């Protein structure tokens, strides 16, 4: 649950960043900065856009890893259920073994003596 909440919070932040950068992302399709000769702004924009691309790659990786983790956590829940059932079965087997031993002592001992 906490993982989902944290991923949702980051997702909202990523959405906000994308909305803020939307004009810059669209401007890369039209090379107006290069035509104006303003290379300083062009370099700053290029750095921001590269960092944004890296952020988006990292975000995709985090989403993939969180999905894998969710699946593993589901498996862990089943392992807990299986362990509990196994422990209960072991307890029942111990009780049955004790009962069989008592029966053997009670009914077979007089026959063997």
Comma- or semicolon-separated keywords:
single chain; mainly alpha; Karyogamy_KAR9; 113 residues
Write structural notes for this entry.
Helix 1 packs antiparallel against helix 3. It is built from three helices and no strands. The model has no long low-confidence stretch (mean pLDDT 84). It has one domain (2-112). The radius of gyration is 33 Å and the shape is rod-shaped. It is an all-alpha fold. InterPro entries: Karyogamy_KAR9. It holds the Pfam family KAR9.
Concise summary:
Helix content is 93%, strand content 0%. By secondary structure, it is mainly α.
Question: Can you lay out the helices and strands and say which pair or pack?
Answer:
Layout: H1 2-27, H2 32-36, H3 39-112
GO biological process, one term: nuclear migration along microtubule
InterPro entries: Karyogamy_KAR9 (IPR013889)
What value does the average pLDDT take?
Answer: 84
Q: Main beta sheet: strand number and arrangement?
A: none
Give the N-to-C terminal Cα separation. Answer: 66 Å
Query: What is the C-alpha radius of gyration, as a whole number of Å?
Result: 33 Å
Overall helicity: over 70%
Helix and strand composition category: mainly alpha
User: Tell me, what's the shape?
Assistant: rod-shaped
Unreliable residue runs: none
Q: What is the beta-strand fraction?
A: under 5%
Number of helices: 3
Secondary-structure element pattern, one letter each = HHH
Compute the number of strand runs: 0
The domain count comes to 1
